[in-house]
Design brief:
This protein has 14 helices and 20 strands. The longest helix is centred in the first third of the chain and has 21 residues. The structure holds NADP nicotinamide-adenine-dinucleotide phosphate. NADP nicotinamide-adenine-dinucleotide phosphate binds next to helix 7 and helix 8.
Length: 484
């Protein structure tokens, strides 16, 4: 791992503007090689409490800054992140395994939220509501929620943090972040750049340690007024329960089971490209990855042939060694889970078109896989695969595919390819998902609201709506006004 600026390689937690160690540490591995690349502190409950206290005392002066002052600091941070994009990408590839092109893209994507909310900070407007009495005025203002806790996953080590910190800081909140123990280096490097940007001590804190212990402290604290979590639905539900005692505001970005529907009238070449982008990005480890590919009868054979031929050409390798299409999976558990989905599908009469086994590179590399003739009995119909496996289901009627697409407890992202205008509106409106992409395989952007319905979560990140997650409304009644 060669960095232009070695100061970005931190192995310490960040509390109240200080870099903090612990007697116990945990190794961080490069999933492409299995080698240990860092050791991070295992903080205990008392250090987490110190971080919460630091965020509480920093909150008073941070919220008192004008929106323009907060905006200037966020913008400085944004510039520093882009100035160090290459180093941040190298760190990310080393700890997460995704290809450098994808890591660079993620750093840019994460930064775009910081730039966006540097602007939105100035737009936390209120209202003046016509009152029932002439002697009264009704004023509504929006105030920062207070201290925020953020718990983030390993699949987007930079962007999942940026998507939370940027709106929180813009709104005037301070934050304590617990990144995944698998990918903490990107988080520490972001904190280093925040410090260089002049973001005051205590405004951003990063803690690492046992997830349950840290999570219990963050959710149990009455100082923390909001939890923003991205991760699995199971852990999201648990944390939501833990937040109930102190009635915290919660935002949850959870798992998905994205349908990707290709209708007979679709442009097949475009649909193949879209399906590849949606499925195999980050080795299939994104919450919005296509999970079930539904293809209509009339084009089924042509589509699966073109799709599997294109997938068979995808290259694999360690992201720090060259340019490939796909890297390793994150760990042994992810590899075993992927194998299990494929074995289950094959046992239930799935037809293997390409892939279907661990890659000859060994370690955590798994071949990009396409399985035709998938059925509703397979595990992949209901559960999130989170690996490079595309099961293809055949359908005949539009109504049937809508029912199958919605037949899940999840509701994050859905995709479909069609050209008939009436169908486009019909299907987009019928899909029970927080996000729907039509004739596109990638939909994330800072300008649009990202989030799910059903068990995929609560709340939205990005866009003008994302700021509301970190604001509370206050109604002020002004009486005794002597005006005609
Ligand atoms: P995860 O196991 O739920 O972990 C997410 C975070 O929660 C990590 O920081 C983890 O810590 C922590 N955690 C785990 N158990 C905890 C507990 N009992 N108390 C407090 N914190 C706890 O999920 P993951 O495997 O990292 O991420 C994959 C999941 O995230 C997938 O389901 C994916 O769909 C979802 N995801 C959703 C979105 C979205 O925007 N909707 C975006 C990305 C990912 P450690 O890692 O340190 O154990």
């Amino acid at each position: 791992m060669k960095l232009h600026d070695s100061g970005l390689f931190k192995q310490l937690a960040y509390i109240n503007g200080e870099w903090v160690s612990a007697s116990e540490t945990l190794p961080v591995h490069n999933p492409a090689t299995g080698k240990v690349i860092a050791h991070i502190p295992m903080l205990g409950a008392s250090e987490v409490r110190t971080a919460i206290k630091a965020a509480e005392s920093a909150f008073k002066s941070w919220r008192a800054k004008t929106a323009a002052e907060r905006s200037t600091l966020l913008r400085k941070w944004y510039r520093l992140i882009l100035d160090n994009q290459e180093d941040l990408a190298v760190l990310m590839t080393a700890e997460q395994g995704k290809q450098l092109t994808e890591s660079r893209g993620e750093v840019g994507y994460g930064a775009s939220f910081i730039e966006w909310y540097a602007e939105e900070a100035k737009r936390a407007y209120g209202d003046l509501i016509p009152a029932a009495k002439s002697s009264q005025r009704i004023m509504v203002t929006r105030e920062p929620v207070g201290v925020v806790a953020a718990i983030t996953p390993w699949n987007f080590p930079n962007a999942m943090i940026a998507r939370k910190v940027a709106p929180a800081l813009a709104a005037g909140c301070t934050i304590v972040i617990k990144p995944s123990e698998l990918t903490p280096l990107s988080a520490f490097a972001m904190a280093e750049l925040a410090q260089r940007a002049g973001i005051p001590a205590g405004v951003i804190n990063i803690v690492t340690g046992d997830a349950r212990e840290v999570g219990a402290e963050l959710t149990g604290s009455s100082i923390v007024r909001k939890l923003s979590f991205t991760g699995s639905t199971a852990v999201g539900k648990l944390l939501m329960k833990q937040c109930a005692d102190s009635v915290k505001k919660v935002s949850l970005e959870l798992g998905g089971n994205a349908p990707f529907i290709v209708f007979d009238d679709a442009d097949i070449e475009q649909a193949v490209q879209g399906a590849i982008a949606s499925k195999y990005r980050n080795s299939g480890q994104t919450c919005i990855c296509m999970n079930r590919l539904f293809v209509q009868d009339g084009i089924y054979d042509e589509f699966i042939q073109k799709f599997s031929e294109a997938v068979a050409k995808l290259t694999l390798g360690p992201g720090l060694d060259g340019e490939f299409n796909q890297g390793p999976l994150i760990n042994e558990a992810a590899l075993n889970k992927t194998k299990d989905f494929v074995e289950d599908a094959l046992a239930k009469k799935g037809r293997l078109l390409t892939g279907g086994r661990a890659h000859s590179l060994g370690g955590l590399f798994y071949e990009p896989t396409v399985l035709a003739d998938a059925s509703m009995e397979m595990k992949c119909y209901q559960d999130e695969i989170f690996g490079p496996v595309a099961p293809v289901f055949r359908f005949h009627y539009e109504e049937d595919v809508i029912n199958m697409a919605n037949d899940t407890r999840y509701g994050l992202a859905a995709y479909f390819y069609a050209n008939d205008l009436s169908r486009v509106f019909r299907v987009a409106e019928a899909l029970e998902y927080g996000m729907v992409a039509v004739n596109e395989g990638v939909l994330s952007t800072e300008v649009a609201p990202f989030g799910g319905v059903k068990e995929s979560g609560i709340g939205r990140e990005g866009s003008k709506y994302g700021l509301d997650e970190y604001l509370e409304m206050k109604y002020v009644l002004l009486g005794g006004i002597n005006a005609p």
